[in-house]
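Components:
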Amino acid sequence: MRKTGNFEYPKHLEKKQKKALKIQWISLIYLATAILLMALVLSTSQAMKTAWIEDILSLIPPLSFIISSGIYTLPSNDEFPYGYHRVSTIAFLISAVALCAIGFVLLADSVIKLVRVEHATISSVMIGGKMVWLGWIMIIVMIYSTVPTMILGRMKQPIARELAEKNLFTDAMMNRANWMTGIATIVGIAGIGIGWWWTDAVAAIIICAGILKDGFSNLKQAVFDLMNQVPTKIGSEDTDPVFLKIKKEVEKEEWVREAEVRFREEGHVFFGEIFIIPKSLDHVTERIQALHDKVIKINWKVFDVTIMLVKSL
Amino acid sequence: MRSGIVLSLLIIATACKEIPADPNRSFEKAIGTGLSVGYSVNPPWVTEKNGTPGGIEPGILNAYARSAGIKIVWEKGSEQVLLEKLEKQELHLVIAGLTKDTPWKSRKIGLTKPYRRNDKTRHVMAIQQGENRLLMNIERYFQQNMDSLLANINEENREF
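Structure:
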């Protein structure tokens, strides 16, 4: 059993973790400015409103990354003997549910607007002595709220892979896909500009489709995680190969006849059990301790294992 | 992303002079056959004398119509009836001394910006929903002429 203590990243990943944290802080602050600007220009455009709400929801992943960074390093204790690693998975589940629920509500809202033939009334503002249609300003604000998001996503993705941070990886993917929201909204507003009132509602519906797709795939990921699905390699559906490696390493031991392993993910570390049919019981306590120490050194993500002797597998 | 922006700009470029456009061509119709305005008596914003609308808001619209070379077709009614007609796109504008927080703001109509600077009560006019070209035209008039116009009206209607 690993003595309770702080979870720490291996030295070479600590820098990456700090960088990820910095990027998430930048994301938060930038998003706050984008959300504020959009609130000022939204008018009655359904597409703009939908993009605005999507941006508000996208505050959750960076926020939960920052908060859970502080929490999951806390040492385990009597009350939480497995530590606090699952905090990030719970945050992920909450945001996935929010995406699904709000996605549906916005979809219904947009379809109703389309069916009721509601036209977006968009006013103008006086800038430098000239009347400027607010639609132009809305388009500029949309570009501001889309392009940096895509750039931030591209920065987050490789770090997420190195840290094997699934939630950060998903956040990065969603950021990179933000272009769809941007184009849909801009085309929607341009359409209103030339008198095609319906492009607004249609653009909003397209954005909702994106929100729901993200919501459902994240929901699936969070639920499977909490159901202790065998951990997968980041960015893929294949089982992480580290478990096969562990099983092979264990079976190499000359005192082990046969072994089975069973692992689950807690946040971004693995906890697991190793079941061994021993050849003999000589020095078994020392051997088990030595094997335990060897296994947790195989990969930094393997946090703790429980080794159990059995009669049959 | 880039192609989306280019696409939008192309769409816009094909109709460049008319941004923003009216889905129901209200501005075009106003120039052609006249601007249909519903009015509901609500002094001093809207008054009536001998079947002719008067007061602050008709004063503003008359001056606007003169400057744009447009004829106004007035229709008298109650706020409820007129706004329902506006929802059904049977009128271009409705004036009734409405304010920005009118309970009608969530219905199928549009509201102009307040036509007075520094107006705490924020009086507005109701416009057919989505007729953004007509809206821009009228709001431009508000912006450019409001001070002088209200000075004139001030003299005529000594209340307010």
